[in-house]
Design brief:
It is a single chain. About 40% of the residues lie in helices and about 20% in strands. The longest helix is centred in the N-terminal third of the chain and has 39 residues.
């Protein structure tokens, strides 16, 4: 039952001058860097120490008022034993009080009606302080406590916002300096948990192959534990946040008492943040276990959401780069053989010749032709010929170095660019290719016993030689190999 100040119960309610001074000094004496729960408990405890009265702090969330802080010795009644206890359950009409104007209410109890003094704080979201006792004779001190606490809380929020902006700016700058998806993954999963003092974090992104989420980076535990995990959309925390595109803050996981926390987790509190691109969700970051073992707060979630913007931009940038490289590679690849096509070959030959001139190196070049390939097409069909082309290309790739360039020059002809090769090394590679193809037997029906051979023309660049000259030189050597009986390697004669 709420009473006006005029008919409030007469009781304890007058503070000494010393108590008023100590009460008003409480907000300034607190370390506002503490977590929400610790800070509010400390606030309630210090007010209790001044007035020797029980103290509750209420917060308003989704149209209801719940206890968010209390003095350590508080045990009001047996029914008030949970932070989820609402103000309405206690008989407090907190929506009716005006910020900064204390109101006295009476809380019924087994020991008789107990007066409480309530005062709202103009925070966002709203909060209220409840002090047991009728303190209407010291209302100016109570009102000043509310005002100072509100100002300090707002200053804390503004400081947090400024810190969030600074961290997000630094985060964006760091992401702008890293290249490649792996580096971006590692930066995100390292910096975002550090910002909210979390021990553990993981980043999951959709797998292009099947659309399921794959964990691509972890912080605080080995990646090997989850690298093979695939998460269906809507499944678990990652799937739910990915599907909805909305962040999720869990302060304390509600679960059966039989549930045992996994060994690597010290708390049940976590935050999951979607990384949202222009058109879709690019990934989900989940952080858990604050270093002080306190639950994560809305301010923590707000900071992570601020950092999610630069993270999504970096992921989008790298994904676009990967797609561009994929398109460029597709345009450079011969679809039948899987090696580079002739157009890309000419570009790379010019590049490698220029590099060889800058570094005073020679360039080996092989022109390879499958012997009697027309007979294979005429006798076994073009599908069999396609199989031969693919298998020969595979042998060429496996016979050269990773930085050598294999290309399909046209029809049944292939070319290989070998940077830094001299005559001796290029000849060894050419003979290796010839021998492996001679030993090759196709699995294509009818071709099992067909003996396949190639003729190879070899040329090595000399100073001042152009790409046209090098190709023409190797082509002349190939012509000599054909007319000498095929299945052999011929070295081009030195140019004039």
């Amino acid at each position: 039952m709420t009473s006006s100040l005029g008919d409030a119960p007469i009781g304890l309610g007058l503070m000494s001058a010393e108590q008023e001074a100590r009460l008003i000094a409480v907000p300034a004496s607190l370390d506002w860097r503490f977590s929400d729960r610790r800070l509010l408990a400390e606030f309630a405890g210090r007010v209790h120490a001044v007035l020797s009265s029980r103290v509750l702090v209420f917060g308003r969330h989704e149209r209801s008022w719940t206890i968010v802080g209390r003095s350590a010795s508080d045990s009001i009644t047996a029914s008030i034993d949970s932070d989820t206890q609402s103000g309405a359950d206690l008989g407090f009409d907190l929506d009716a009080i005006t910020a900064g104007t204390p109101t006295v209410v009476v809380l019924p109890s087994e020991a008789g009606d107990v007066p409480w003094t309530l005062v709202a704080c103009a925070t966002r979201p709203p909060s209220a302080i409840a002090i047991q006792g009728d303190w209407h004779r010291s209302l100016p001190a109570v009102a000043q406590l509310s005002l100072d606490a509100t100002r300090a809380w707002q200053a804390r929020v503004e400081t947090h916002r400024a810190r969030s902006g600074l961290l997000a700016h630094r985060f964006a700058r760091q992401l702008s300096r890293v290249e490649g998806l792996r580096a971006v993954y590692d930066t995100i999963v390292r910096r975002m948990p550090m910002a909210v003092h979390a021990r553990i974090a993981a980043l999951a992104v959709p797998d292009p192959a099947d659309g399921r989420l794959a964990v691509v980076a972890t912080h605080g535990y080995p990646m090997e534990l989850v690298e093979h995990l695939r998460i269906d959309p809507q499944a678990g925390v990652f799937g739910a946040v990915f599907e909805s595109g909305r962040p999720l803050l869990v302060k304390n996981l509600e679960a059966p008492s039989s549930r045992r926390r996994r060994p690597r987790y010290r708390t049940d509190s976590f935050v999951a943040i979607p990384l949202i691109g222009t058109h879709d969700v690019l990934g989900v970051v989940c952080v858990t276990d604050r270093q002080d073992d306190e639950p994560f707060t809305p301010l923590d979630m707000a900071l992570l959401r601020t950092m999610a913007g630069p993270a999504a931009l970096a992921l989008g940038r790298e994904r676009a780069n990967v797609q561009a490289e994929s398109f460029a590679l597709t345009a450079a690849i011969d679809p039948l053989s899987g090696v580079f096509n002739r157009r890309h070959f000419h570009v790379r030959l010019e590049e490698e010749l220029q590099r060889s001139v800058r570094h005073s190196l020679s360039l080996g070049f092989l022109m390879i032709d499958i012997d009697d390939f027309k007979v294979i097409n005429d006798s076994f069909g073009h599908l069999a010929g396609d199989t031969i082309i693919r298998d020969v290309a595979d042998i060429l790739r496996r016979s050269v170095r990773v930085f050598d360039v294999c290309a399909r020059f046209g029809g049944e002809e292939f070319a290989i660019i070998m940077p830094g090769s001299v005559v001796e090394s290029a000849t060894m590679v050419a003979e290796r290719i010839r021998e492996r193809i001679e030993a090759y037997r196709s699995t294509e029906p009818g071709l099992e016993n067909h003996r396949l051979t190639v003729s190879i023309g070899l040329a090595v660049s000399s100073p001042g030689m152009s790409a046209h000259d090098l190709i023409e030189s190797a082509d002349r050597a190939l012509y000599l190999a054909k007319h000498a009986g095929k299945n052999r390697v011929k070295l081009a004669e030195p140019g004039p």
